[in-house]
Amino acid sequence: MRYRILGQRTGLRVSELVLGTGMFGTAWGYGAQPEEVRNILKGFVDAGGNFIDIADNYQHGESERLIGEFAAGNRDGFVIASKYSRGSAANPALAAVGASRKTMVRAVEESLKRLKTDRIDLYFVHMDDGVTPVDEIARGLDDLVRSGKIVYGGFSNFAAWKIATAATVASVRGWTPVAAIQVEYSLLQRTTERELLPMAEGLGLGVMGWSPMAGGLLTAKYRKGEKGRATDLKASVLHDNPERNGPVLDALLAVGEELGANPGQVAIAWVSAKGVLPVLGPRTRAQFDENRRLDEVSAVPLGYPHELLAAPEQRAVMTGDRWEQIDYPNRTVA
Predict the structure, then answer these.
(1) Residue 292 CB contacts under 8 Å (≥ 6 apart), including other chains
(2) Using alpha carbons only, what angle is made at residue 205 by residues 153 and 131, rounded to the nearest 5 degrees?
(3) Is residue 322 part of a domain?
(4) CA–CA distance, 62 with 34 (Å, rounded to integer)
(5) Residue 334 belongs to a domain
(6) Which tens digits make up the pLDDT trace of 34-73?
(7) Active-site residue flag, 58
(8) C-alpha–C-alpha distance, residues 156 and 182, integer Å
(9) Tens of pLDDT along 278-309?
(10) Do residues 238 and 215 lie in contact, with contact meaning Cβ atoms separated by under 8 Å?
(11) Which of 191, 193, 128 has the alpha carbon at shortest distance from 165?
(12) Distance separating alpha carbons of residues 291 and 293, to the nearest angstrom
């Protein structure tokens, strides 16, 4: 397992693969039993993984409880991220959901109890509720950092302009910096490249990409008639469009055959190669240099001004009497 520094606003060393836990538990009627969860966690740890992503609403809190039980004996060996705003109950009260600071304060206390820990390493607001001002969220995260209940804060599933506003307000007012974002990112969801990824690069934010295999669609298992989230938990699979997905899957299968890797491995490696930390289950990583072919078949128009600024002559700086390309290397550690 290799490790990366989470963005440029932290010194946090995290495994380049993040273990997502949305399927840990069975409270949703679909997911892994506790024994299977422990097997997955053991395999992840044995492979060198240390970064675990949770949310209070995953399996109505069961995922957090399972992670708390597993990590209790080696808490400092893990980087645990969790999220709030959607509530942990099956039918939460209106005042128990949303992004407000009231909800944040209540939610973090409940998550700490389920996780059996005194702090959460990375705490995200899960969803934009459309009404809570981002400066209220940023101030709430700063309060939690100062109280020692969280270490870093971030935003998940927010528009780029709102995250940028929160990061700017926090910087101007001397609050804890916004550290990271979570976004959906895969070969079937690349609109993230229009605003969110350039914003994260510009502000030095770490990026975690959820659903890198598009809910299992990029494993090509549904072409074989197999079952999975797309058949048993349909609401969680957002891009089930065979007509659009067909060319992407064809290219994915072809690249995988050339490399001796399965399509899921190739899909995950593609996300990782973009500098985004894939949020997935088991440890899988394929080596390949076929990104260009996958880029072309899945590309979405970036629009103005991104296409203009992507031109080579726009990404150069004057050095002496010649132009040289700017290089933006990812910060990694072996």
Answers:
(1) none
(2) 55
(3) no
(4) 10
(5) no
(6) 998 998 898 889 889 999 999 999 999 999 999 999 999 8
(7) yes
(8) 4
(9) 997 533 223 223 335 666 667 777 788 877 77
(10) yes
(11) 128
(12) 6
Domain region containing 195? 3-306
Say if 153 falls within a structural domain. Answer: yes
- The per-residue pLDDT for 282 is 38
Catalytic residue chosen out of the listed positions 3, 58, 123, 328? 58
More confident residue, 310 or 2: 2
Top pLDDT among 295 and 17 is at 17
Q: What are the contacts of 230-239 at 24+ separation with CB within 8 A?
A: 232/30, 233/28, 233/30, 236/22, 238/184, 238/189, 238/211, 238/214, 239/186, 239/188, 239/189, 239/214, 239/215
**Is residue 67 assigned to a domain?**
yes
Backbone angles phi, psi at 118, to 5 degrees: -100, -5
Average pLDDT over residues 112-131: 97
pTM summary value? 0.85
CATH number for position 82: 3.20.20.100
And the tokens for 214? 């598009």
The total number of structural domains in the chain stands at: 1
What's the pLDDT score for residue 235? 58
- Amino acid, single-letter form, for residue 126: H
Cβ–Cβ under 8 Å, residues 129 and 157: no
